[in-house]
Design goal:
Two copies of one chain form a homodimer. The longest helix of chain A has about 50 residues. The two termini of chain A are about 45 Å apart. Among the domains of chain A are: about 210 residues, Clc chloride channel, CATH 1.10.3080; about 80 residues, no CATH class; about 110 residues, CBS-domain (Roll). By secondary structure, chain A is mainly α. Chain A has a three-stranded mixed sheet. At the A-B interface, helix 4, helix 10, helix 11, helix 19 and helix 20 of A face helix 4, helix 10, helix 11, helix 19 and helix 20 of B. Chains A, B: It is a multi-pass membrane protein. Chains A, B: This is Chloride channel protein. Chains A, B: One of its GO terms (molecular function) is voltage-gated chloride channel activity. Chains A, B: Keywords: CBS domain, Chloride, Chloride channel, Ion channel, Ion transport, Membrane, Repeat, Transmembrane, Transmembrane helix, Transport, Voltage-gated channel.
Amino acid sequence: MAPREQKGGGGDPEADIEAPLISSGSSFLFQDAACEEDGEGDEEAEQRRNRRRLLNGSLRQSNVTSQVALVGTDVCRIESLDYELIENDVFKQDWRARDRAHILRYFALKWALCFLVGALTAAAAFVANLGVENVAGAKFVVTSNLMLARRFESAFTVFLVSNFVLTMFATVLTVYVSPAAAGSGIPEVKAYLNGVDAPNIFSLKTLVVKVVGCIAAVSASLHVGKAGPLVHTGACIASILGQGGSHKYHMTCKWLRYFKNDRDRRDLVTCGSGAGIAGAFRAPVAGVLFALETVSSRWRSALLWRAFFTTAMVAVVLRALIDICKTGRCGLFGKGGLIMFDVTSGYINYHVVDLPPVITLGVLGGVLGSLYNFFLDRVLRFYNLINEKGQTYKLLLAATVTICTSCCLFGLPWLATCKPCPTGGEEACPSIGRSGNFKKFQCAMNEYNDLASLFFNTNDDTIRNLYSAGTDHEFHLSSIILFFMASYFLGIFSYGLALPSGLFVPLILTGAAYGRLVGMLIGSQSTLDHGLFAVLGSAALLGGSMRMTVSVCVVILELTNNLLMLPLVMLVLIISKTVADAFNANVYDLLVNLKGFPFLEGHAEPYMRQLSVSDVVTGPLQTFNGLEKVGRIVDVLKTTGHNGFPVVDEPPFSDIPLLYGLVLRAHLLVLLRKKDFISSCTASALDASKHFSPDDFAKRGSGKHDRIEDIELTADEMEMFVDLHPFTNTSPYTVVETMSLAKALILFREVGLRHLLVLPKSSKRAPVVGILTRHDFMPEHVLGLHPYLIKSRWKKVRFGKSAFTNFF
Amino acid sequence: MAPREQKGGGGDPEADIEAPLISSGSSFLFQDAACEEDGEGDEEAEQRRNRRRLLNGSLRQSNVTSQVALVGTDVCRIESLDYELIENDVFKQDWRARDRAHILRYFALKWALCFLVGALTAAAAFVANLGVENVAGAKFVVTSNLMLARRFESAFTVFLVSNFVLTMFATVLTVYVSPAAAGSGIPEVKAYLNGVDAPNIFSLKTLVVKVVGCIAAVSASLHVGKAGPLVHTGACIASILGQGGSHKYHMTCKWLRYFKNDRDRRDLVTCGSGAGIAGAFRAPVAGVLFALETVSSRWRSALLWRAFFTTAMVAVVLRALIDICKTGRCGLFGKGGLIMFDVTSGYINYHVVDLPPVITLGVLGGVLGSLYNFFLDRVLRFYNLINEKGQTYKLLLAATVTICTSCCLFGLPWLATCKPCPTGGEEACPSIGRSGNFKKFQCAMNEYNDLASLFFNTNDDTIRNLYSAGTDHEFHLSSIILFFMASYFLGIFSYGLALPSGLFVPLILTGAAYGRLVGMLIGSQSTLDHGLFAVLGSAALLGGSMRMTVSVCVVILELTNNLLMLPLVMLVLIISKTVADAFNANVYDLLVNLKGFPFLEGHAEPYMRQLSVSDVVTGPLQTFNGLEKVGRIVDVLKTTGHNGFPVVDEPPFSDIPLLYGLVLRAHLLVLLRKKDFISSCTASALDASKHFSPDDFAKRGSGKHDRIEDIELTADEMEMFVDLHPFTNTSPYTVVETMSLAKALILFREVGLRHLLVLPKSSKRAPVVGILTRHDFMPEHVLGLHPYLIKSRWKKVRFGKSAFTNFF
C-alpha cells in the first residue's frame, strides 16, 4: 500500500476556479478583478478570445467553462463559494471561546444588519425614484412646454439630446468605472446565491454606478426598468455591510468578524435581494417571495422571517420618506414613481362569460413571453459580439439604441389622430405638466393625443394610464397596437446595453398594452374593465417570460391594491407559465446560461444516475502530509490552482495512511505569511493554532484573494516544516467512489459544498482518491468525459428542459 | 482483518422505530395501528404506562423516545420516512425502462393529483362551512326565536342540549372510530413532513371523522376552529390520492405506482396542507406560505409552483361552489363562513401618533400569545392525564367542557346592560335571524345586547362583528373585557378535547377582542378605527402564539381584503413575535414536543460540534453478506427491529470485506415472500431482479407493513441462499466516523435520510462501523450517552430555545 498511490479513476484537481484560463503559465493565476484590466495587450486579446469562445459555445465543450463568465458586460474569472463550516481546531477554539455576550452580540448584529439593509435599500429605491421623477420630469416639462408653443423641432432636439446625454452618461459610467453594474444584476445575484462568486459584483463602485446609472438610463426614456438594478443594489448593500464596509476604501468595521464567511453573507444577500424588489414596487411580501422563488437556491425557514423583517423595514422607511415628500420638498416627485397604482379599486365582479378572453390572454401571454425570451437571447448574443470588440463599440451601441428610441417615442405619436377631450372628466384635458392621461402633443386645444400619453411619459406613468379603470374609450385600437409593438421590441433591444437596466418594468408595460389590446379585440362580451385587462396582461407577460408565479401574483396585487383580482391573476399566471414552459426556459435561467455561470440545478440530470463519481473525477490529486515541508506547499500552491487539499497522516506518524481532513488554500496562505514554521519533521508539542486568531482566517470580500506570489520565503524557511493539523477541517463531507453522481450532486448542492472528498471503495488504496467540485457536476464536463451519453436517450429525454425542470 | 469484526465505538442498531417499546418480546414487533387496539388488557396497560412516561418526561430520558408519540389522543408507534432514492438494480432497470410516454404520464398525473387535491380540499372546506352554518344556524334560529318569545329557560335548554349532543357526537366519533383525528392535526402533518410517520394519520377513516367531527364540534359553539382540521383534511386527501385510494377498503388505482414512495408523497402532502389553509380562509397565497413557513421542513422551488397551483384550484372551486349557493340552495349558508371579512375596506390613513398604541398592541400581544402557549401546554398535559385513563374519561372531559362553555355563552350576556339601537343604521336592530351585529337577547325592543352579539353567534360572525369598521360605539368596554377574558380561556380549555379542533379561529377571535380592548383603552389619541384595531389585535395574538410572520400577514390581508394595512400588520407581527420568542417556543413546536415526535431541527445544537458520530453510534451492527443464507436473514429480521442492513461482500467473493450497499427490511421481506432462492452459495448467474417488478417494492401507505411473522418458510428453504446484490442500494450516503455530529445532522436532514452509514477512519477495520438514524440525533439520546454535556455550558447557552431557533 504505497502512500500516495492513486489507482483507478480517482484523483481530481480542484481545478474549478483559479486554474489558468487557457494559458498554462502560473503567473496567470489569482489575478483579482480580472475583468477590470481591459486594455492590456495580451490579456485583453486572451479575454476577447475567451469571450468569443464562451459566446460561440466552444468554451462550453472545453474544460474551462466553469472558470469564466460574463459578469455585467465583461468576461471575468469566477470562483466557488463555500457554505460548509470549516471545523478545524482554530474554529473550535473560537467557538468554545464565544460566551453569551458574544452570541448576543452576534444576534443583535444580525438583526441590525437586516435593519440597515432594509433601510438603506429603501433609501436607494427612494433616491432612484426621486432622481428619475425629477430628471425625466424636468425633461418632459421642457419638451411639453416647447410642444405647447408648437416649437416641435426644438422639442425634438431637447428630447433627443437630453436622452442621448443621459444614456451616454450611464454607459460611460458603467463601461469605465464598473462593468459589473451593467444589466439587471439578477443573474449575477442568482449565481452568487447558487455558490458562484465573481469579482466586483458587490463592490462599492458597482453599487454607486448601479444607482446613478439606473437613474440616468431610466430618465433617458430607454425602455428599461428600475426593479432589476434595485435587486442588485439591495444585494450590494447587504454584501458590503456584511463585510463591514469596503476594504478598498479602508472603510471597515472590526466588529463584524462573525459575518466574514460565505454562509452569513449568503443570508444577507438573500435578504438584500428581497429588499430590492420590496423597494422597487413598495411590495414587501412580494419581495420576500421573489427572493425565495427566483434568486435563492437554498432556503431555511429562519431566513423567511429575517427577509420579512428586512422588507418590512423597507416599507416603513419608504413610507416615512414619501411622507417627507408630501410637503413638496422633493421637486417634481409627486404622484409618480413609488406611489402604488391603486387605480382599479372598487368591487370587481366576474362571471363565466369572462373566462374565454382571460384564458386567451393567458395562452397568448405565454407565447409572447417565451418569444420575448427567445428574441432577447438572440439580441443579447448579437450585442455581446459587438460589446466584446471594445469599449468604444459599447458606447456606439448605446448611442444607436437611444437615438432610435427617442425617434420612436417622439415620432410614433404623430401617427395618432387627435381625440376630443372627454367632457366632465376630473382630470385636466389636455394635461399640462408632466403627468396625466391627456397629452396634448401636436393636437389642438381641447384635444389630446392618446399615443403621446403612452409614449411621451415615464414608464411608471404610462403603466398607471393603462391600468386606470373607466378609460375604455380613451385609447384608439390602433394606438394600443402600435404602442404594444413598439414597447415589445424596444424592451428587447434596450436590455443588453452596457448600463444598468431591468426587465420587470418593460414587461409590465408591454403586458399592460397587450392586455388592453386583448380586451379591445375579444373583450366585448366580457364585463371586465380594460384597465383590469391591462393588469391581467401584465401578469400574463410576466408569467410567460419570468415564470415566477407566487411572487408575480403578489407583486400585481400589491401594485394594484386589489385582492379581489387574485383568482383571475392566478389563473392567467398558471396558464401563461404552463404554455411558455413548453417552449423555453425562464428569462433568468437563459441569462445565467448565456453568461456562462456554472449553475448547479436542484435536480440531477437523468444520465447522472448512470455514472458513479469515479467516472468524473479526473487528474492527479495533490495531498499534503499532516507535517508538510514548506517548500512543497509553496510548490504545489504555485503550480496548481486548487483550493482544497486533503491532509493525510502517513507513516511514521500513523500505521497506515489515514485521511485527516481537508485544508484550504486560503488558510495555507495565511500560514505561510505568518511563517510560524517548525524546524524538524516531528510532531510539534506546541499548539500552533494559539499563534493565530480566528480573524486571520476570516474570508475577505467578494473576489479578494491573497496570492502565493506575494509571499517571500527564504531558502532556509523553504526547508522547514509546518504542522497542518490545527488548520485542517477534520469533518469534510465524503462520498464513496461508487456513489451515483446524481446522489452526490444532491449532497453537494443541498449542503452547499465547495469540495467533496471521494473515498476509495477498497481499503487497500490511498485513503482519498479525489475531490469533486462544482466543475465536476457541470453537464459540459460530464458529457465531455462521456460523449456517448449525449447520444443516449438519457440526454434526449430532456426535451423542453424548462418544462421538466419545473415538473421535477 | 476478520470479516464482521466491530472494533471501537461503532455499530448502531437501526433501532429507531419498530423496536419493542418496553417489552422485549419479538412478538411485539411490527404491530400495525397499535394505537387502535384500545381495550386489550396487557397492551392497553402497557400503552398507558408508556403514555404516562411520555407525558411525565421520563420516557424522554430512556432510549425509546423516538419510537412512540401521541397521535391525536392516543400513544402510537411511529416510524421514520425515507426520502432517499433507493438506487438498486431493480430501480435502475425500472428507470431505464421508463420511456417518454411513462414520463409524460408521470407529469400529467402529478398535476392531475394537485388539481384533485385542490378541488377535493375545496369541497371539504365547503362542506365544513356549509355544515357549520346550517347546523349552528338552525340552533341559533331556534334559540333566538325562543328568546324573542322570552322563553329563556327553553332557549337555554335547547342551546345546552344541542351543544352537548353535538360535542358528544364528535367525541364518540373520534374516540371510537379514529383517535388520530383529534386535535388540529397540524403537529402530526408537521412531523410527517419532517420524516416521522404514524399509523392512521392519513387514513380514509381519519379523513371522514375529521370533517364530520369538525362540523359537529364547531357547531357545538365550542371555542375551536376549522382551519387546523382542514389542514389535516387537505393532507389526508393528498396522501390518500397519492397512494391511489385506500388499501383497506380495496379502492386503489394501479396507475399511481410512481407515487408510491415517500418523496412524492411528501410533496403531495405539502400541497395538501397548503390547500387546507387556502380553503379555510379562502386565502390561496397564505395557504402556500403557510405550507412553506409552518408545516414543511424542506422546500424546493418547484414545489412552490405546484403548491400555488393547488391553492389556486382551491380558490377557483370554492368560488364556483359559493356561486351555486348564491341562488339560495344552501340553506342557511349565506353571508357567513367562507365569505371574506372584507369589512374594513376604504382608505386607511395612519400617522406617527398611531404608532404608540400599535406598538403597545404588539408588545402585549406577544406576552399574551406566549402566555397562551404556556397555559395551553399545562392544560394539555393535564388533559392527557385524564384522557389516558380510558375512553369514558375522554367523553366525560368533553361533556364537562361543553356544558361549561354553553353556560358561559348563555350566561355571560346577562351581565351586559342593554344599549339602545343606533339610529340610521343600515342593519336591522335588533337583528332577527341568526346573523347581524345587534342581538336582542333579553333586551327590550329597540335595544340590543352587545355581549350577546359576540357570545351568541358563530365564531365567524363574531369575528366579522369585531372587524367591522365604524362600530366604535357599538360595544361597551366592559363587554369587550368580559368577552376577551372568556374567549382567551375557553380557547385554551377547548383545544385538548378528543375531537377535531383548530387553534387558528380562537386566536383570531380572542385577538380581535384584545385589539378592540387596546383601541378602547389607549387608542383615543389615535385616528385608527376600532375595527382596524381588532384586525391588528388578531395579528398580534397570532404572531405571539404561532410565530408565523409572512403567512399570518397574508392571511390577515386576504381575510380583510385591504393591502393598505400591510405596514401596520407587519409591524405588529414583528413586535409580537420578537417579544413572544423571548419566552417560549411557538405553539406548534410545543405541541410537537408534547406529543413526543422525534423532530429533526434545522440547526445543530452547539454541543453536537463537540461530538463525532462515533460518539453516538451504539450497539452491535447487523450486516449481511452479498449472498446470504435465508435462515440468517429470517433470524436477524425476527430478533431486531432494524430497517436497514449494510451488505458487505466478504472473502471468498472479494479479496477483503467490501461495503456493497444498504438493503432495506421492506425489500428483504418482499424477497422472502417471493421465495426466489438459490441453492448454493455461489454467485448466481441469473439476474434475480428480473423476477421482480418495481411494483413489488413500492412503498405502501402510511403505517402499513409486511411482517416477518407472516412469512412461512420450510426448513429446506431456510438453508438456501439469496442474492442480495440486485436489491441493495449501492449509493447509500456515508460519513467517516470522525465527522462531527453537527455536520452529519445537516447532511441527514438536508438530504432527508433514514439511514446514514458510518465508515471507519482506518482501513484496517470492517468496511462499515455503524448506522446513524433519526434516533441518534435526538438530544435525549445524545445527552443520555454523554450526560456531562447537560452540565456543560454548551447546553445552557441555549437559553430561550425558541429565540435561538429563529435567530440561527
